[in-house]
Design goal:
The protein has 144 residues and is mainly beta. The chain has a single domain, classed as Sandwich (Immunoglobulin-like), CATH 2.60.40.10. It has no helices and eleven strands. The N terminus is likely disordered.
Length: 144
């Protein structure tokens, strides 16, 4: 008997068209997924990684008393296609680092937080085949 293998698909809007990627996996599934991720991405996915941090951390920085940005732990980073659909997400670690796996394309990274501050900008990234993309996100604490 021939084993039935699941068909895995990931839809992505790229430029002005929709791309549907389907991968025929092994019986147990061959895709990789991230803890807390909203989708399962084929093994051919590309990593987007970086650090989410907030600064400034004090009102006045003096010589000998630096005010380095602080990592944002436990915040959700989403990768969205240009239409706004979330295709992958992950929570940051205690050091502010995150890793997402997506197919090649253009994405907007968004940090989802419950508080008004810090405010994190949207980061646009272009992911190329077999080329991990680093995207640090620097959020503004509002301290002046």
């Amino acid at each position: 008997m021939i084993p039935i293998r699941p068909l895995r698909c990931l839809a992505s809007a790229v430029a002005f068209s929709v791309v549907l990627i389907c991968v025929l996996g092994a019986a147990g599934g061959s895709g990789s997924s991230l803890s807390g991720a909203s989708t399962t991405v084929p093994d051919s996915g590309v990593r987007v990684y970086g650090v989410v941090q907030a600064g400034p951390t004090c009102p006045v920085e003096r010589k000998g008393h630096p005010c380095p940005p602080r990592p944002l732990s436990g915040v959700r980073v989403e990768a969205r296609v240009l239409s706004g659909q979330v295709v992958a997400s992950a929570r940051t670690r205690s050091n502010g680092s995150y890793v997402l796996t997506v197919i090649p394309g253009i994405y907007v990274l968004a940090v989802k937080m419950e508080n008004t501050f810090p405010r994190c900008p949207l980061e646009r990234v272009t992911v190329r085949p077999r080329s991990p993309e680093k995207a640090d996100i620097n959020c503004d604490t509002g301290i002046r």
